[in-house]
Amino acid sequence: MMSREQNEQLSRVGPGTLMGKLLRRYWAPFLLSSEIPEPDCPPVRAKLMSESLVCFRDSKGQIGLIDEFCAHRGVSLWFGQNEECGLRCPYHGWKYDVTGQCVDLPSEPEESGFRKNIKLKSYPCVEKAGIVWAYMGPPALQPPPPALEWTDVEPPQRFVSKRLQECNYLQAMEGGIDSSHVSWLHGSELNKDPLFKGSKGNVYNEQDRMPLFEVEEFPGGLLIGARRNAEHGKYYWRITPWIMPWYSIIPPRAGHPLGAHAWVPIDDENCWAWSINYHPKRALTKSEISAMQDGEGIHVKYVPGTFIPLANKANNYLMDRESQRHGHSSTGVDGIAMQDASIQESMGPIQDRTKEHLCATDSGIVMTRKILLRAAKVAAEGGAVPATEPEAQRVRSASIELEKG
Q1: Which of 23, 189, 294, 395 is least buried, going by the fewest C-beta atoms within 10 A?
Q2: Three-state SS for 403?
Q3: Which of 66, 15, 57, 50 is nearest to 32 (CA)?
Q4: Quick one: angle between helices 336-346 and 169-176, nearest 10?
Q5: Other Cβ atoms within 10 Å of 136 Cβ, number
Q6: 208/215 Cα distance (integer angstroms)
Q7: CA dist 157 → 162, 215, 260 (Å)
Q8: Alpha-carbon distance 126 to 98, whole Å?
Q9: Do residues 202 and 182 touch, judged by C-beta distance below 8 A?
Q10: pLDDT of the residue at 189
Q11: Do residues 279 and 150 lie in contact, with contact meaning Cβ atoms separated by under 8 Å?
């Protein structure tokens, strides 16, 4: 059982918190490149780890991520005009470049030097895999850009989406590394979802609902192995890598593309759930891409014009009690992604882990918490944290039948 102090340490992500200091040591995916598609396009609000920011692409294509509020009188720069290599506040015309430096202050003479002393908080960004990533940690400790396998495949081999999840990042992430729930929560989906059906592993998931777990550390985080009984005296293994600080890679089924996730805190009570499908050896097919765009697999349908899932907390996830009653779905919620989200959000904005009773299938979750707390204490002292180097991120999930022993 976890103490209240440990739960607070793991869950709180704002500036100066124990976990906040750790998570800021990594590149954080926060925008799709398509959200700021061209130079001088409108800016985008970007709340990240409890910091209110605004992101824009300037006239030269450079990306700026700066404090949302003008240094003059606190107006939101989301209302500003993105023009001539800067974002101009509409209130009194103060203008900021991608570094947060004020480059024009119409109400003060330049010779006063006042403008040069005005600089907003800003964070460096990189663009990779159709995503904009931010680094919010100490500049001297900035790591190399992300090097997960899905970030380095060719664009036709990858599909990326994100959605708002209304709960703390940790309980969402813990759901993603928990292989034991698949047999129960997703049993109704595995044999009908176009990105999962047709795998012999689906049968093993259904027949053996008591997997045995083996968990091993590796330089990037954890390898979480779930073993189920298979045919002909074999075991069926599904091995899920959890990569510091918020990534997982879903083991494949049949010839379908691999899946991956990232859960990035917006604040203590909300996160961005990133969902990625990719294939390391081939382009995704038209039918696969169409299914992903339609919200199948680990993706969702949206409220138009937003990244809010169409099925969400406000409408009880469009739950169908008749489907649940007649055994068509364990939850009455349609789709793998929203089955996960509905359960994780039902725990409350921040789960009270002091009341939980863990069992053998939770060994991966227990070790994840230990590694995060251990790394956070190192980060608080300015030490080196794991999985910032490319070599530690280059790992792939696996599903395989093996002889016993």
Answers
A1: 294
A2: strand
A3: 57
A4: 130
A5: 23
A6: 19
A7: 17, 30, 13
A8: 13
A9: no
A10: 65
A11: no
pLDDT digits 0-9 by tens, 24-54? 999 999 999 999 999 999 999 999 999 999 9
Whole-angstrom distance, CA of residue 96 vs CA of residue 10: 35
Report the C-alpha gap between 216 and 230 in whole angstroms.
22
Q: How many residues does the chain have?
A: 405
Given the structure tokens 């060719």, which residue do they identify?
154
Tokens of 130: 């159709």
Structure tokens at 390: 């490319």
The residue behind tokens 């494949």 is: 252
pLDDT score, position 169: 98
Cα angle at 372 between 345 and 186, to 5 degrees?
Answer: 35
Report the Cα–Cα distance between both ends of the chain, in Å, rounded: 33
Q: pLDDT tens across 329-353, in order? A: 778 898 889 999 999 999 999 999 9
Q: Is residue 111 classed as helix, strand or coil in its secondary structure?
A: helix
Q: 């700026």: which residue's tokens? A: 64
CB pairs under 8 A, 24+ apart, for 144-147?
Answer: 144/388, 144/389, 144/390, 145/27, 146/27, 146/29, 146/393, 147/390, 147/393, 147/394
At 66 the three-state DSSP class reads strand
Does pLDDT of 185 surpass 70? no
What DSSP state is assigned to residue 219?
A: T
Q: How many Å apart are CA 124 and CA 130, to the nearest integer? A: 17
Count of CB atoms situated within 10 Å of the CB of 281: 6
Residue type, 346: S
Calpha distance 172→166 (Å, rounded): 9
Rounded to whole angstroms, the Cα distance separating 405 from 202 reads 23
Which of left, alpha, beta for 269 (phi over 0: left; psi -120 to 50: alpha)?
Answer: alpha
DSSP codes joined into one string, 353-396: GGG----GGGHHHHHHHHHHHHHHHHHHTT---TT-SHHHH---
Query: Which tens digit of pLDDT belongs to each residue from 242-268?
Result: 999 999 999 998 889 999 999 999 999
Cα–Cα distance for residue pair 118/105, rounded to 1 Å: 9
Average pLDDT over residues 77-100: 98
